[in-house]
Design a protein that fits this description.
The protein is of the alpha+beta class. The chain has 2 domains: 76 residues, Glutaredoxin; 107 residues, Glutathione S-transferase Yfyf (Class Pi), Chain A, domain 2 (Up-down Bundle), CATH 1.20.1050.10. 54% of the residues lie in helices and 8% in strands.
């Protein structure tokens, strides 16, 4: 099989790519990366020295493609599937790219800061940084609450790659900083995302690993 995805089932950025692959029906070989295993880590570093997943390897084209959004654009260009995920209109595409970056930078990044602080050694937590991340995350959720009013999906009535970004961002944001009581529109959007078959599949595949998420609050499907 030409395409191989190097990933971990808990990684929010990996979810984004998995959802797109499942939506499009594109065939690929999954390679689970265990960074705690020296052999698995060494093989992954040999493929991508930065050692951040997801990474897509396309043997047919001799390409190694890192970063979730770039992988989605690569798939759209070279392996378009049954479900178009990118708008064809240039202005709509620009707006979609803006929203994709919003979910990655202003929900995923602060969410990860809050959750991964629980992995720091005793006495080395970053309370100030976590406080900043919580402030940014609340601001981003306020924007989602406003933007999603009256919409089914991020771009309106059409499911797109932006929704692939939104599911992991909102799912883990709700673990890092529960928002059901404060943001009903964002909560309803998250519920719709979780009900979509491709997203439900990704969550089900990740569920056995939820006990590895640091902190007092475990993810719940």
């Amino acid at each position: 099989m030409s395409l191989a995805l190097h990933y971990h089932p808990l990684s929010s950025f990996c979810w984004k790519v998995l959802i797109a692959l499942y939506e499009s029906g594109t065939a690929f070989t999954p390679h689970l990366v265990n960074l705690g295993d020296p052999e698995s880590r060494a093989a992954f570093v040999a493929l991508w020295p930065v050692a951040k997943f997801p990474v897509l390897r396309d043997e047919a084209r001799g390409r190694t493609v890192p970063e979730s959004t770039i992988i989605l654009e690569y798939l759209e260009q070279h392996y378009p599937g049954k479900t178009p995920l990118f708008p064809r209109d240039p202005e709509a595409l620009l707006r979609a790219r803006e929203q994709d970056r919003f979910y990655d930078l202003y929900l995923q990044v602060p969410m990860q800061k809050i959750i991964t602080d629980g992995l720091r050694p005793p006495g080395q937590s970053d309370a100030y940084g976590v406080g900043q991340a919580k402030t940014l995350l609340r601001t981003a959720l306020d924007i989602v609450e406003k933007d999603m009013a009256g919409r089914n999906w991020a771009l309106g009535d059409t499911f797109s790659f932006v929704d692939c970004s939104a599911l992991p961002a909102l799912f883990y944001a709700n673990v890092a900083l529960p928002f059901a009581d404060s943001h009903p529109v964002a909560t309803a959007y998250l519920a719709r995302l979780k009900q979509r078959p491709t997203m439900a599949r990704v969550l089900k595949e990740a569920e056995p690993y939820f006990n590895l998420v640091p902190g007092d609050r475990r993810p719940q499907i």
